[in-house]
Write a structure and sequence with these properties.
The complex is a heterodimer.
Chain A lengths: L4 H5 L11 E12 L2 E12 L3 E5 L6 H8 L7 E6 L2 E2 L5 H6 L2 E3 L12 H8 L8 H4 L6 H17 L15 H14 L4 E5 L7 H16 L3 E5 L3 H7 L2 E6 L2 E6 L1 H5 L2 H8 L9 H6 L5 H4 L3 H11 L1
Parallel strand pairs in A: 3-8, 3-9, 6-7, 7-8
Antiparallel strand pairs in A: 1-2, 1-4, 4-5, 9-10
Chain B lengths: L2 H12 L2 H20 L6 H19 L3 H23 L4 H20 L4 H4 L5 E2 L3 H5 L7 E5 L2 E5 L1 H25 L2 H11 L1 H6 L4 H27 L1 E2 L3 H4 L1 H14 L6 H26 L12 H19 L8 H5 L3
Antiparallel strand pairs in B: 1-4, 2-3
Helix pairs in contact in B: 1-14, 2-8, 2-9, 2-11, 2-13, 2-14, 3-4, 3-5, 3-11, 4-11, 8-11, 9-11, 13-14, 14-15
The chains are: A alpha/beta, B mainly alpha.
The complex binds adenosine-5'-diphosphate and magnesium ion.
Adenosine-5'-diphosphate (ADP) binds next to strand 2 and helix 2 of chain A.
């Protein structure tokens, strides 16, 4: 399960087959009018790895998440999760099977307290059936267990002090944290995080990255959308690049950083004419060419980890 | 005029059966709107289905009142399922439109002349409630004194009040247990954000349907109490039409949406205020304080609604969360 294993086995090309894919997507198309927001020929997500999904704004990452998790319907395409076809299922059914996502625009339940938000996340609650709801003795024990788990997670996410606040009173970053922690309450097998670090302060981001790695150690699979290339380099085992709806590259962070097509997608076709760092910042992401010199230090960091 | 008398009679009116059945309708709306965020603008339709469901079997098929009770509840469950099935997957406003339309359609159908044998047509149904009043344990009028207040109700009223308020308290207890359970937590979460609920593996549609059915059954039971209290069901807009829905919503908002006692407190306040303004204007006229050219005697009924409308507007301006609502929660809406 060490990180260096995966790259050795898997080819770095779009649609590469993986040894143990948890998610397999083929021919997935979503059109908005004339715009093909998603047009994924083939993509496999390896089990128990952290996969980063990157790409410029409007690349179709969020739409791809929406399709895979049942919140939007594709015009064409299939996908399987643990070998089961998912297309016909609704979002809640997919979540029940262990595929839980968070949203780019956070969906915190404003007039519920933080702890209530958390408790909602737990799956298989006896007290959620109306018949049992009226008989508290049937669910009180489970509720106490859920609350204990919720408090432990809140502690892990540095949110314990907000426990009894309404979710509406949280900052944007705190809502991101809450939503991620709430998703974990469902004990998902695969977590799909749409820009989980956006708005979270840098110190906390580091901690969060630690938590995400822990999730992998727990045996979960993580797919996340992220713009910060330092974050991507730090935690991802595999990087998938989307542009204009398509998967244009796949590989380790190092391979992706050297990929000409990716640099083109991020910087536009004329990047060689004017590849100033200002320009790269404007595009909303860190330039790959810029981060290339860091590559070695990044690798060193990796080996230090082990 | 004696202001204490007017207050006394207003409070007395506040305990009457009308408050009980509006409370029940508002308890249902509280489950729909207050806890789940469903916009049901046809609560009177649920009341009508309950009232006719109770009366028709007795009137047209000589069944017992118990059969009527079962029919009324079953019919309201079916009514909720029919309205919810096509709309609850759509945006919230679709339910609002469909419920208001369905409530009116139902009222016009039972008015139809062709159905006179079964529904009584535009005359409605009378004489189905004798079984209920035969069971009345009170033989004479019932009264009690509370300080300067003297509450006195006829045996008939007292019997409807006993049953009606008994059911209201049961409804409050039900709401309390249901809402403070994991089930209630899902309802409140649906109100806040359905997609968040779905992303956590819960079938938001099913929870909305359950809410619609349960709130609708409360409305139907309210309709039955109305039918029994009046001893008749009338397909009129005031009794079982849009006005009734408006009254129930007004009561809910006055009391506080999403608050346990909101519907009951709101109904009590609303009915008491209606009675208070009515008696007050009449005595003021008798004293000569209000000229009859300003408010004629036959306009008092309208004038009190005008005054109450203004009072409602003031309430919404200065205490938008209602009597029981919390200002802190209200501020979160922005
Ligand atoms: N509901 C929608 N209706 C029309 N166009 C949409 C809709 N959702 C997304 N799009 C378009 O699809 C493209 C991909 O969007 P999105 O998936 O949000 O990109 P990303 O998350 O990668 O930034 C964008 O061009 C966007 O404008
Ligand atoms: Mg996005």
């Amino acid at each position: 399960m060490s990180r260096s294993e995966a790259p050795a086995e898997i080819e770095s090309k779009p649609g590469a087959t993986k040894p143990d894919p948890i998610l397999k997507v083929s021919g997935l198309v979503r059109q908005f009018g004339g715009l093909k927001a998603v047009d994924v020929e083939h993509l496999e997500i390896e089990r128990n790895k952290i996969t980063a999904l990157i790409g410029p704004n409007g690349a179709g990452k969020t739409t791809f998440f929406n399709l895979i998790t049942g919140f939007d319907q594709p015009n064409a395409g299939e996908w399987t999760y643990n070998g089961h076809p998912m297309k016909a299922l609704g979002p809640h059914q997919m979540a029940k099977q262990g595929m839980v996502r968070t949203f780019q625009l956070t969906k915190s339940l404003s007039k519920l307290t933080v702890i209530e938000n958390m408790k909602l996340g737990a799956a298989n609650q006896v007290g959620e059936s109306l018949g049992k709801a009226l008989l508290p003795f049937t669910w009180k024990k489970q509720e106490a267990e859920i609350e204990r788990r919720a408090d432990a997670l809140l502690d892990r996410f540095n949110m314990s002090h907000m426990r009894s606040e309404f979710a509406a009173s949280l900052s944007g970053g705190q809502r991101k944290l809450l939503e991620m922690a709430r998703a974990l309450m469902a004990e998902p097998e695969i977590v799909m995080l749409d820009e989980p670090m956006a708005g979270v302060n840098p110190a906390l981001t580091q901690e969060l990255l630690g938590h995400v790695k822990e999730l992998r150690e727990e045996g979960r699979t993580i797919v996340f959308v992220e713009h910060d290339m330092d974050v991507v380099r730090d935690i991802s085992d595999w990087v998938v690049v989307m542009a204009q709806g398509q998967i244009i590259a796949e590989g380790t962070h190092a391979e992706i950083g050297a990929n000409q097509e990716v640099i083109d997608a991020y910087l536009g076709r004329h990047h060689d004419e004017e590849m100033s760092s200002d320009k790269a910042q404007e595009s909303g992401t860190e330039s790959f060419s810029q981060s290339e010199p860091d590559e070695n230090s990044g690798l060193e960091k990796e080996s230090n980890d082990e | 005029m004696d202001i204490l008398d007017i207050i006394g009679s207003a409070l007395k009116a506040g305990l009457r059966p009308e408050t009980a059945y509006i409370s029940l309708a508002a308890i249902g709306l509280n489950i729909h709107f207050g806890y789940t965020g469903l916009l049901n603008f046809g609560q009177a339709g649920f009341m009508a289905v309950g009232a006719y469901g109770l009366a028709i079997p007795v009137f047209a098929f000589e069944a017992s009142l118990w059969v009527g009770l079962a029919c009324g509840i079953t019919a309201s469950v079916i009514f909720a399922l029919l309205l919810g099935y096509p709309t609850l997957r759509l945006r919230a406003d679709y339910l609002a439109i469909v419920t208001i339309a369905a409530a009116e359609i139902f009222r016009f159908i039972v008015r139809a002349t062709g159905l006179r044998e079964i529904t009584g047509g535009s005359n409605g149904i009378n004489g189905f409630s004798s079984g209920f009043y035969e069971a009345n344990p009170y033989t004479s009028s019932v009264g009690f004194e509370l300080g300067f207040l003297d509450f006195n109700y006829t045996a008939r009223e007292a019997w409807v009040m006993t049953v009606g308020w008994g059911i209201v308290l049961t409804g409050i207890a039900f709401t309390y247990f249901a809402i403070n359970s994991p089930w209630g937590r899902v309802l409140k979460s649906v109100r806040e954000d359905e997609d968040a609920v779905r992303s956590l593996g819960k079938n938001a549609y099913s929870f909305k349907m359950q809410s619609l059915v349960i709130g609708g059954v409360f409305g139907a039971i309210g309709g039955m109490i109305l039918a029994l209290a009046q001893g008749s069901v009338q397909p009129s807009p005031v009794d079982l039409g849009p006005t009734r829905t408006f009254l129930a919503y007004a009561a809910l908002i006055i009391g506080g949406t999403g608050k346990l006692w909101g519907p009951v407190a709101g109904s009590f306040i609303f009915i008491s205020l209606l009675s208070f303004t009515d008696t007050f204007i009449r005595s003021a006229q008798a004293e000569g304080w209000i000229d009859e050219s300003f408010i004629a005697p036959n306009e008092v009924g309208i004038a009190r609604f005008v005054i109450l409308g203004i009072a409602l507007m003031l309430l919404m301006t200065f205490r938008p969360q209602g009597i029981f609502g919390s200002k802190r929660e209200m501020a979160l809406d922005v």
